Amino acid sequence: MFAGVQLEDADLIADTDALLYVKVRGTQTVQSKYRLEMELMKSARIRGQKFERYTRLYGFVSFQPTRTLLHITHIGTMEVSLKAYDK
Questions:
Q1: Which tens digit of pLDDT belongs to each residue from 48-87?
Q2: What are the structural domain ranges in the chain?
Q3: Structure pTM?
Q4: Cα(59)–Cα(34) distance, rounded to whole angstroms?
C-alpha cells in the first residue's frame, strides 16, 4: 500500500485528482530501478485530462532501509512525474 502521491509540478495540483487508485498488473518481481507496470482501478483526472479505468501507468521502484518508493513516469502515453511511498 502506498500512502500518497507527491506532485512535483505545482501546476498539476489544481488539475489532478488528489488520490489515484492503482494496482500492479499481473505478477511482477521488482528490484531497485526496475520498471513497474500498473493500471488505474478508477477513472482519474490528471493535468485536466480524464483517464479511464484500466489505463496503464509506468514507474520505477527504489528502496530505502525502511521504505519503498515509486516514481511514476507515464500515464498512458502522457509523461508525468509523480512520487509515492509505502505506508
A1: 889 999 999 999 999 988 888 889 999 999 998 888 877 6
A2: 2-86
A3: 0.74
A4: 8
